[in-house]
Amino acid sequence: MKYVLDTNALSALMKGDARALARLRAAGRAETGIPQPVIAEIEYGIARLPRSKRRQALQDRFDLLRAELPRCQWTDTVSERFGAIKASLEHKGQRIEDFDAAIAAHALADGSSLVTADLVHMVRVPGLTVEDWTAE
């Protein structure tokens, strides 16, 4: 896998962001994966919404993307990277949320680039390559 999607990147795809969709087409679906923490965050975000046409539309788009994109497996290597990320950033006084560290760990474990708009936090992760598919 070449790319791992962060929650905000998958959300941009769900919202139909033209730049993100073009980058996904260029990258290829088989080369772009979704880690389980991203699925959990999106599920939570949708579940928080009141029942509405908007909620159903988001759920439909999420289901479509989830059906078409492969999952990043949570392996022992991912867990090891997670621990190293958390410890390294904590020692520097630069803690990040556990799910953010887990998502970054998936990208590092796979040798993939993390697709995210959260550059402020994610660029601090040692060795992590990041791309923002929504930027020009």
State the main characteristics.
single chain, 136 residues, alpha/beta, five-stranded parallel sheet, 5 strands, globular
Task: Describe the fold and architecture.
The chain is α/β, with parallel strands linked by helices and 136 residues long. Helix content is 59%, strand content 10%. Strands 3-2-1-4-5 form a five-stranded parallel beta sheet. The longest helix has 16 residues, at 53-68. The two termini are 24 Å apart.
Oligomer: single chain
User: Biggest β-sheet, characterized?
Assistant: 5 strands, parallel
N-end to C-end Cα span = 24 Å
Spans of at least 5 consecutive residues whose pLDDT stays below 50 are: none
* Helix content, binned percent: 55-70%
* Number of helices, where a helix is a run of at least 4 consecutive DSSP H or I residues: 7
